[in-house]
Structures are given as C-alpha cells and as structure tokens.
Amino acid sequence: MPLDTTTVQALAELFAQGATNNDAVRALGVDKGTAARYRTRLGFGPAPKRPAPNRSTLTVEQKVMTLMRPVEGGHMEWTGRRTKNTGTATFTHHERTYTARSIAFRAHTGRDPEGYVTAECDQPEWCVAPAHLEDEPGRTRARAALAVITGRATSLAECNRGHATAEHRRYLPDGAPYCGACSAEVKRTRRAAA
C-alpha cells in the first residue's frame, strides 16, 4: 500500500538532511524496506556515512602537530611512535599510517613533498619542526646556493662516469656536490654484495 503524501514529503525532507533508512524508521514508523524503496523513488542515493564516534575530528595536518613538542632553538621533537627498523617518526590517522615529516611539510608549505623530507637545521637527526623541513627540490636549491657561497660550485656538464650534472647533481649538507646516479650505483652494489 502506498504511503500518504504527508509521509512521503516527510521522508523526502529526512533524506535531504542526510538521514539513513533507520532514521526514517524511527522518526516516521515506516518499515526499513519501505524507507529504502522511497529513497530510490525520490531519487536520493545512499545516506552519507557518519564517522565512527571514536574517530578523530582532526585533519591529518592537525593531528601531526599534536604529536610534536617544541624544544629549545625553534626545533620540535617527535613524541609519537617510530618504526623499529629505521626509527622514522610515524602516526596513524583514520586507519592510514603517515610519516610525520611529510605531513608536517605539507602543513607548512601547502603542497605534498617530492622525494624524502629531511630536517635542514642543526638537529637533522630528530627535528620535525615544519619550518625546518625540506623536500628534495628544496634541499637541492638550498645546498646549491651554499655551494656557490662556499666556492664548491662547479661548471662541469658531466661527472667522471658521464652522468649529466643538470639531472643528477646533488649536494651534501655542507654544499659539497656529488653525482646522485653514481651514489645510487654504489648503494646498489653494496646491497648486492651484502
């Protein structure tokens, strides 16, 4: 038997507000099957999922900041968990695991990092202060500028093994240049020998 127009209108209003079929059952006394049929007839899709009551309302960027503690010198120390094998600062948010530095970098710059994120300050081993973090392009720019200032910049177009410096040039924290491709080859050789 069809529902009266008042009940149909009430269902439409409930569904427009994001009510579930169970909400309609409780509010109007219709059965769940009827609520589902009228949801389809009225052109409403499934009700939006509600977050679990124990789920954090913080964004991932806000959560990462709750796990940092300011220390002397403008640095920040990680108070959350670290991975066992590498000691990387990590945390879980809405059932996903993130690295603290990458999210802190995104919170500070408004963009996702490219490559690894490291602290470019006098405490690179443990500092997670968003203002002290750089991704690969930022590190390369800052260290290239340091190479120029310290007189370590070079105008060579290729390294000793023929890799183009425009593509593979990397810099150590002190501004000393090296070839990223050669360094990667050496690492691969060491891993294969181990």
Given helix and strand content, the structural type is alpha+beta
Q: Which strand order do you get reading across the main beta sheet?
A: 3-4-5
Mean pLDDT: 90
Specify the overall morphology. Answer: elongated
Helix content: 40-55%
Query: Helix-strand pattern, N to C?
Result: HHHHEEEEEHEEHHEEH
What is the number of helices?
Answer: 8
What does the largest sheet look like? 3 strands, antiparallel
DSSP E strands, number: 9
Give the terminus-to-terminus CA distance.
76 Å
Content of β-strand: 5-15%
Question: Low-confidence spans: pLDDT under 50, at least 5 residues?
Answer: none
Radius of gyration: 28 Å
Write up what this structure looks like:
By secondary structure, this protein is of the alpha+beta class. It has 8 helices and 9 strands. A hairpin with a 5-residue loop joins strand 8 and strand 9. Helix 1 crosses helix 2, helix 2 packs across helix 3 and helix 4 crosses helix 5. The N and C termini lie far apart (76 Å).
How is the secondary structure organized here?
Elements: H1 5-16, H2 21-28, H3 32-41, H4 60-66, E1 68-70, E2 76-78, E3 81-82, E4 89-93, E5 96-99, H5 100-109, E6 118-119, E7 133-134, H6 136-150, H7 165-168, E8 169-171, E9 177-179, H8 180-193
Antiparallel strand pairs: 1-2, 3-4, 4-5, 6-7, 8-9
Helix pairs in contact: 1-2, 2-3, 4-5
Describe the structure in brief.
The chain is an alpha+beta fold. The protein is 41% helix and 14% strand. It has helices at 5-16, 21-28, 32-41, 60-66, 100-109, 136-150, 165-168, 180-193, and strands at 68-70, 76-78, 81-82, 89-93, 96-99, 118-119, 133-134, 169-171, 177-179.
